[in-house]
Design a protein that fits this description.
There is one protein chain. With 317 residues, the protein is mainly α. The chain has one domain. It has ten helices and no strands. The longest helix is centred in the last third of the chain and has 38 residues, at 272-309.
């Protein structure tokens, strides 16, 4: 069995994903025993995440380029790939800044700092594992689904709440959200300082956006009648849940430091505000890509429901 086939088998094996998560927990526990993080330990953590993230992106990109009888699976793969680009860029910038501080300054830790850092690392691992889970079932449907009719179902008329979601998921709305995020961060960085209220606004906006999107993806999971589609939703929901927890943990640390409770003055690296702004925008792009992806997920569910009603027997769960 080749490397690619082995990886594809792992993607749908709950035990393998559980091993990855347990290994991450044990690794971070071992790192934290001396209550400090050595540069080599941070480098090992970062490199592992970076390799995993970009490998997943390359796999999704190749999947989206393959021919299939179910075209919507290509769109879903493309959406997941773009989401991974934003997450991977965030991880690259975060660890670049982290390694610079560890190698050039003596770091002062906040109360529960190591615990929150471990939570953030584990949430990134969980996010990638959720994506792996979704990719595995997307691969299965990409290969096995055969659409023998060119007739496509019209989307059912949306209820009031669903109509609102469709407005939010519109491409123009998504572009507007990204544009507002860029202008907002440009405004907050003009004086090269981030006031607590500015950070509070940024964090609360991300938290609300992330959990609203998580709830919507879960609602799609409950509406679908095709098990494999539901499992794709589950994987994406796990990824969103992990990133949402990551954002909460990050802003807890950020607000505590900005409020001055710790009495610690943060050491800034060159272009610190530029890199922080890019990281914020990468999270916004991740959420916005997930919003756009939700349209294709709902379309996939509608097409599956239509084919079941038409009596299609070509796809086997």
């Amino acid at each position: 069995m080749g490397v690619k086939e082995t990886f594809e088998k792992v993607m749908t094996d709950k035990r393998a994903l559980a091993v990855i998560i347990v290994a991450a927990i044990l690794w971070r526990t071992a790192m934290s025993l001396d209550k400090q993080i050595a540069p080599w330990e941070s480098i090992c953590s970062g490199v592992a995440l970076i390799i995993l993230g970009w490998y997943l992106f390359a796999y999704l990109y190749s999947l989206s380029r393959e021919e299939t009888s179910w075209l919507i699976s290509n769109k879903v793969a493309q959406g997941l790939a773009i989401s991974l680009i934003s997450l991977n860029v965030y991880v690259l910038i975060y660890y670049g800044m982290r390694w610079y501080r560890l190698l050039s300054t003596t770091e002062a830790y906040l109360p529960y700092d190591l615990l929150l850092r471990n939570v953030r690392f584990l949430m990134l691992v969980l996010a990638y594992c959720g994506t792996i889970w979704a990719i595995g079932y997307l691969r299965k449907m990409h290969d096995n689904y055969v659409l023998v009719t060119e007739e496509m179902p019209g989307m059912r008329k949306a209820a009031g709440s669903e109509a609102f979601v469709k407005i939010i998921a519109d491409d123009r709305t998504v572009i507007a959200i990204i544009g507002i995020a860029f202008f907002w961060r440009a405004f907050t960085s003009l004086d090269k300082q981030i006031a607590p209220w500015e950070s509070m606004c940024s964090g609360v906006a991300l938290i609300i956006l992330g959990w609203a999107l998580f709830g919507y993806i879960n609602s799609l999971t409950m509406r679908t009648i095709r098990p494999s589609v539901a499992k794709i939703y589950h994987g994406i929901a796990i990824t969103l849940f992990a990133i949402n927890i990551y954002v909460i943990a990050y802003y807890i640390m950020r607000w505590y430091r900005l409020a001055g409770f710790a009495g610690i003055e943060e050491a800034l690296m060159p272009l610190d505000f530029v890199f922080r702004d890019i990281r914020f925008c990468m999270i916004v792009i991740f959420y916005c890509t997930a919003i756009a992806l939700s349209k294709y997920l709902e379309r996939a569910s509608a097409e599956c429901e239509y084919l079941i009603k038409k009596g299609e027997k070509t796809y086997k769960e």
